[in-house]
Input
Amino acid sequence: MAIQKTRSMVLFENYVHSPKTRELYSTLIKSFCKYHNIPSWDALLQTDKILLKERIEDYLIHLKNDDKSHSHMRNTTFAIQSFLESNDFEAINWKKIRKLLGKDEKPHNSRPYTTDEIKRMLSVAKSLRSRAVILFLSSSGVRRGSIPEMKIKDLKQMQFGCLAVTVYPCHREQYTTFINKEASEALSAYHERRKQQGEILTPESLVFPSVHSNRNNVPVTEKTISFLIRRIKQTAGIGGPDDTNLLVHAFRRRFDTIFKLKDNANVSLVERLMGHSVTVQLDNHYFQPTIENLFAEYQKAMMDLTIDDAERLLVEKQTMQEELDHLEEEKAKNRELESRMSKYEQNQDEMLRVMDLIRSGKATLVKSEPNEIRVKLS
Output
């Protein structure tokens, strides 16, 4: 159903600030209108208030009978509410309507993937693209929704073969995370394949474009990412009927869990790597870590994030070498400090000997140059 953009829609778009939320709410409102054969968004505003309330209630009951999730129904109510309130349509008791949703039951087995499970997923992933997507998600901890609009210019080369990733660039939610060498190499192999197939990659090229379009500037959808992970997970024999929540977000849970189990974890930095707004009050205003600070924190868990055993050994060896190099630097600094202290003590002893000679009358101070004083023995 084609819906023309009217003033009511423009008001709604300016009322809902987040582009992702706006897109989601628009889809949910269109589904509501389609279900009740409402021809336009303006017609929705012209509906009698009592009738509209009943239609909303009927639609929620329909969604519940259709086994839609509590989250889906909750978002539907917020979508319709946002549109109506942005156009000054009031007198609906939303608190009462949301009572129809029932209790939000905790999903079964809300857990992260294990490293072994991701290994199994990679073993059945047939394409370079699938491997790149899996390793990108597992090593960066990004949300599924950040992938579609991500461009090559949002990636920056770092030490140890890692890449810095700017997530949600130019949005209020923008933050920086990283992918490790393993994920970076998989992504590079996927991009090289695209070049071999004739695509010209530029900084504006999408990191993961849609494979269902002849145009390279069409982004992959969130649903496609979920379908890809679900298919690979099922092929690898991971999860069961009760693991309905074990999908894309489970990579993010693993990322967060690995970091926060570290004894030396800096929670504020980890939360920044996760793209969480605030954990410590006022952190967003006063705590401004550099990319170097964030990368130093990322390195603490880099080995545990790595999937391949050989790569993990390389990362472990690299980490140990860094620690040895750091110890050598500290030893060198200590040796230099000891040398300087020794010279200082020698100078102190010499000064005390000269002062004793002067006090005993066995030496005097003589000015030989404008800025030079010498000791003359009597």
The chain has a mean pLDDT of 87.
